[in-house]
């Protein structure tokens, strides 16, 4: 057992002492627990919504959501590429702690996911859309089903319209625009949870606007003045927007919106080949430097909205630094879930921020791009090959399970070598470590409040801060290597 369930002990004691009235109270507490929906897009830049001022994109539903939400303007993906950020989203930990270094790398089965944690206090859980943290074959140790999700309609990687998906391990094809069919699958799960009177956690990971960009005609038609590549690109983002609008509308119709936390974000910055001009690139990142794949602000700062009508009564904009590493501890704080052997967290609970009681982050955020190559995962090819090997009642082909070695600790990593780019965000300041072609580190320092575009290096102006932040970054990286080598699993 990964968990030690402590949440109901006080309730059970109260029931023993005061009788059936307390049993009713316990049932009421169960029914009033918030539902949680966690949404994430694929390669959507910080500036790529109407509410962030994009001059072309049409995102009326997200704009409406922003008008009633907590908007997090300094929200960070844990990594500048997809799989690592997804791992941080589920665990509250920097992905290097469990060797999810780049795209196509997996979780470790030793990790505790947010889905596993909330199941311990009565939640039903579902994953819908892009997985990209391992196989979607049901017997894989890092499939959605073996990572805490009761229901899952998942793709190994990004996907387009009429996508093939693995539904609890069985391959099927969905028909329709890719973002809408993902939300519809999630809504089937949500409606069943509501019928069963169970609180739910739904994780919705869209496949757009990842390349290739293939918007349906009615979405391309929203941008008649754009070239075809931008009609497809912007159309995919508008497709996500419409799917989010449908989700919010359905939550209202079901009477679930008031006590449902709906969180929207992206997994990393935008992909640069789409943007041929500096103007288009700047629009995508909201004027930030960098893009997908690097640790400049444009690579890791992403849009983020939290809507929860029962708690967030009026729109707010926060500049407190926070990120995908904070999702897990926030959900645990909301639900009362306790994990008995919790690996070291990098994230902090944002529940005080949501409740209007947090004005600063209590600890820095570290970033580290370990120099490991990504692993290609072609969703349709993988799923069609799996489908051919499946038969009724037998979803798993003969042979070893995919990613069977995902939990291996055979490779041990040195602490005296900390290769690759890294960064530390501490309040207003960011230390950025880049490597020269010869592998030597080069440090720059920025005040992100005064200089969000990272144009003015303060490393020579403020040497004391530089020294302090360099030491803090190295200490954090050493703790990451300890986790990477298995220290967190010692118990």
UniProtKB/TrEMBL annotation:
Group of enzyme by EC: hydrolase
Record region (Disordered): 389-413
EC numbers for this chain: 3.1.6.6
GO molecular function (one): choline-sulfatase activity
Record-linked InterPro entries: Alkaline_phosphatase_core_sf, Sulfatase, Sulfatase_CS, Sulfatase_N
Domain (Sulfatase N-terminal): residue spans on this chain: 34-336
Similarity comment text for this entry: Belongs to the sulfatase family.
Organism (species): Gimesia maris
A Pfam family this chain is assigned to: Sulfatase
Keywords assigned by UniProt, alphabetized: Calcium, Hydrolase, Metal-binding, Signal
Protein name: Choline-sulfatase
Signal peptide location: 1-26
Gene3D superfamilies with a match to the protein in the record: 3.30.1120.10, Alkaline Phosphatase, subunit A (3.40.720.10)
Source domain of life: Bacteria
Name of the gene encoding the protein in the UniProt record: betC_14
